[in-house]
Structure formats: C-alpha cells, structure tokens
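Bench notes, afternoon.
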Amino acid sequence: MKPFHRVGSLLFLSGHVAQIGAEITHRGRLGADVTVEEGYQAARRTGDDRGDGAGGRGLF
C-alpha cells in the first residue's frame, strides 16, 4: 500500500505526522492546540518527509 493517495491536485496522507528525525514537530488538534498556519506547516513537513523515504525532495 502506498503511503499517500493523490486525487487530482489533492494529496491524502493518512497516519503520518510531521517530524524531524524521531521528533514530532507539531502536536495537538487543529484549532485547539495548533493554529491553521501551523497546520499548513505540519502538512508541508509531512509531505516533504514522505516523498523519497529520506526526508529529501518529498511529494511537493
């Protein structure tokens, strides 16, 4: 199973978190503990980490 699913211009990443190495960079719930801007940053970080398996070029 792929770690992501792309439909048109949307990318679905289920079960992944934004992290650097083993450290999770964004914790909490969007709107409660994490701002919308932080949510965007977390999504970008997650996509960057999942593309090539080494945190390199990523999916974006």
